[in-house]
Amino acid sequence: MSAMSEQTSVAQPIRIAIVDDHPLVREGLAARIATQPDLRVCCEAADPDSALAMIRARRPDLAIVDVALKQGSGLDLVKALSGDGNGPKMLVVSAYDEELFAERMLRAGAHGYVNKQELHGSVLEAIRAVLAGEIYLSPGLAQRLASQAVSGRRSAQGLELLSDRELQIFELIGRGAGTRAIAAQLHLSVHTIESHREHIRAKLNLRNGTELLRRAVLWTLESRA
Cβ of 159: how many Cβ atoms within 10 Å? Predict the structure, then answer.
């Protein structure tokens, strides 16, 4: 390779995909990334299906993914991209509680988690860390996960008791989706969704569907405020 071709190769920017169902969030992330001369947003999407097709076609170096997306889940998207083998590194940026979602996302294949409340100060640091092959978590969460690993114990209260699928359905309930709508979106049977609802209700010690709906709606509103 000639010196000129080597220089051209070095000058190629790092390509980043943004997957978030809020246009203003995508705009804000793109603006932050644009301040870095070696980073470039190459594509954006608001739902998992579009994101998966777009990322497979454009092959970015890094995908920034929200937990909650239109017509689907960021958790499922991370799992799908992780299963591709040659997929991008993945950084989750979400308003949802990192203590509840970060470990799930890491198990699914993500390389870092940033809460949107800390977005302005930490997103570029998180991007750099993930691109360098590191796992990025807030200092507080990293310490808690380390303590749990040493002690061999995990707190298992409230929503932490829910499986990934149950948590996904709980979040959709909180966004106002009915059982049939959830079944259609997740490509599952109505009976399967009803069974998951009963498991969620039992794990959260809720007496009926009304209490489940109220709890889900309040949690979703608080998480996405």
Answer: 19
Residue range 168-196, pLDDT digits in tens = 999 899 888 889 999 998 889 999 999 99
CA dist 75 and 63 (Å) reads 13
Q: Domain check: are 189 and 118 in the same one?
A: no
**Structure pTM?**
0.72
The DSSP H or E segment spanning 7 is helix 3-11
Beta bridge partners of 44: 18
pLDDT score of 6: 47
Regarding whether 124 and 85 lie in a shared domain, the answer is yes
110 and 21 belong to one structural domain: yes
Instruction: Name the residue range of residue 183's domain.
Output: 158-223
Residue 77 sits in the same domain as residue 170: no
CATH classification at residue 192: 1.10.10.10
Residues 224 and 68: beta-carbon distance below 8 Å? yes
Distance (Å) of CA 15 to CA 44, 58, 76, 168: 11, 9, 22, 29
Alpha carbon distance 61, 50 (integer Å):
17
Non-local CB neighbours of 200 within 8 Å, separated by 6+ positions: 162, 166, 169, 170, 206, 212
What are the pLDDT digits (tens) for 20-79?
999 999 999 999 999 999 999 999 999 999 999 999 999 999 999 999 888 888 999 999
Go through 27-50 and write b for each residue having 16 or more CB atoms within 10 A of its CB, e for each that does not. Answer: ebbeebbeeeeebbbbbbbbebeb
End-of-domain residue from the set 126, 148, 170: 148
